[in-house]
């Protein structure tokens, strides 16, 4: 499996933030960034998709968003 330079960069970023105390990054370009005190902003392709109350709801939103993107294609 040959990865493009963009895919390699996304995986490197996800590995870097793997042990972060707040926020997260995925291999496919989703980021959970702490914002507004306890809220988490979910970002993908440079666009803020949603503000979630906690990290687990942000991760649930990311999995739902991935599924909805697959069905739209």
Q: Name the structural class.
A: alpha+beta
Work out the radius of gyration.
13 Å
Strand order of the largest sheet: 1-2-3-4
Low-confidence stretches: none
Q: Number of domains in the coordinates?
A: 1
The separation of the N and C termini measures: 23 Å
Mass-distribution shape:
globular
Helix fraction?
Answer: 40-55%
Separate helix tally: 2
The overall pLDDT average reads 89
Give a short account of the largest sheet: 4 strands, antiparallel
What does the model show?
The protein has two helices and four strands; from the N terminus they run H-E-E-E-E-H. By secondary structure, the chain is α+β, with helices and mostly antiparallel strands. It has one domain (5-72). Strands 1-2-3-4 form a four-stranded antiparallel β-sheet. The mean pLDDT is 89.
List keywords for this structure.
73 residues; alpha+beta; four-stranded antiparallel β-sheet; 2 helices; 4 strands; 41% helix
């Amino acid at each position: 499996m040959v990865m493009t330079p963009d895919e390699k960069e996304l995986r490197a970023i996800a590995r870097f933030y793997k042990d972060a105390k707040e926020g997260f990054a995925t291999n496919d370009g989703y980021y959970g960034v702490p914002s507004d005190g306890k809220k988490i902003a979910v970002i993908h392709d440079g666009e803020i998709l949603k503000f979630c109350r906690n990290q687990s709801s942000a991760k649930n939103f990311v999995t739902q968003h991935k599924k909805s993107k697959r069905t739209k294609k």
